[in-house]
Design goal:
By secondary structure, the protein is mainly alpha-helical. Helices cover about 50% and strands about 5% of the residues. It is built from 10 helices and 2 strands, in the order ααααααααααββ. The radius of gyration is 37 Å and the shape is elongated. It starts with about 45 loop residues before the first helix and ends with a strand.
Amino acid sequence: MLVPPLAREAAPAAPAPAAPPTAAPPAPTPAPQPSGPAFFDAGQPGHYLAWYGAEYLAVVAVGTLWLTDATASIEPLPALMGPSVDLKAADQTMLFDPRLDDVIGRPMTQEKVGSGVLAAMIVTPILAEAGLDLALRGDLHRTHAIVLGSAEAVFASYLATEALKLTFGRLRPDFRERYVRAACTGVIEVEVELDCSAVDDGFEIDRAELNDGMKSFPSGHASSSFAAATFLALTVGSEHVWGASTPEWVRPLGALAVAGLLGGAGYVAATRVSDHRHHLEDVVVGSAIGVASGAATWLVHFDLEGRARRRGVAVTPLPLAGGAGVAVTGPL
């Protein structure tokens, strides 16, 4: 017999399908921590070695020549200016011609500014300016530019001056007395007998000092002092005289410092004439070499506004379609 639908037992419901297992979310990757600048990054030691290393070596090499006066023993070529002399067979008539008394017959005198004093006069203001600038600005790169640039200015003028001295071989105003002293003490041999009574005072010169008597043109003291003075004058002037942000009350002090630097170099140059070490034109040309060297070197390390230039290039990752590249820009 048929059972009514209501009388039927309810059929058990089918179990629901189990949900698929879900994977746990990945742990967050920790953000990379900065590791500090790399060795060759801008401002780091590697950067300076890469971009200035050759200049460091050149400064050390030329500075050693300058401090040791390594060219003193080199005899220059025959004179291209004024009277010339061959030390092996000197023309005595020419050497003792009274018409050359003002040219090569001046007495030897004590130098007012010797080589040691000159070195101190150059190094002291360089270190003073570098130290003061670092204290005021705290910019090591600018201090580096002041020290390296001023050294390069001095040594560039030194190289140019020494090359010209050896090429021109001009006799100094006191050469005659140098020659007599060298002959009377046996430094050189002469074929005629000389009157040594005038130089019999116990003061002797060696062969290097005699060779130096043939290196009058141009003046090394003038070129070196004006190279340092010009470089520092431009550094001080761009910061404290004509700088756009310079307070008005600072400008007179800056101008006084610039005048002092150039005046000191002028004093050194003037003593070379009064001490009978150089002719006037030797000093003029030497000073011009120094000014040109100081100005050119300053422009290598500073811009016209007095800001220290930075060398190097910046390499930046650059995403590209289908790959990647780098962008190189410079200077830093």
